Amino acid sequence: MTEPLSLRLDDQLCFGLYAASRAVTSLYRVVLADLDLTYPQYLVMLALWERDDRPVKELGAELNLDSGTLSPLLKRLQAAGLVCRTRRSDDERSVRIGLTESGKALREKAAGIPDVIGEAMGLDEAALGRMRAELDRLAESVNAYREALSPS
User: Fold this and answer.
1) Which of 37, 77, 88, 139 gives 94 a disulfide partner, CB atoms 3.0 to 4.6 angstroms apart?
2) Is the pTM of this model over 0.85?
3) Helix axes 113-121, 13-32, angle to 10 degrees
4) In the CATH scheme, what is the code of domain 10-121?
């Protein structure tokens, strides 16, 4: 028979993940101040810099954000002049998000952020890649387990 897992706070993986997440997002807050972006806004911009002009629904799915969270983010980015929202003429319910010229130009200012974050983490490029892969696997496994527990 295996030993039950400890209930000590220091033994909880969730606490380690929580503390690491807070530390990293706190660093992003400092680094993103010059860009006048919040961390969630930065994630939206990253997705749009990767692939511009896309439906809001698709952007939300990629970022794992519901419309109640994504819509205010997009409105603030639009007010800042970084994105534009357009409704399709043939389907008023469908809204597309695209970068403005200012939004495209901001990419240049953000180019060094990944290096700053990587340096702060004390990981080389290979270690960062392994960490990302492990975190992706962890999220996938936990999501599958949660879905199996949820009643249909």
Assistant:
1) 88
2) yes
3) 140
4) 1.10.10.10
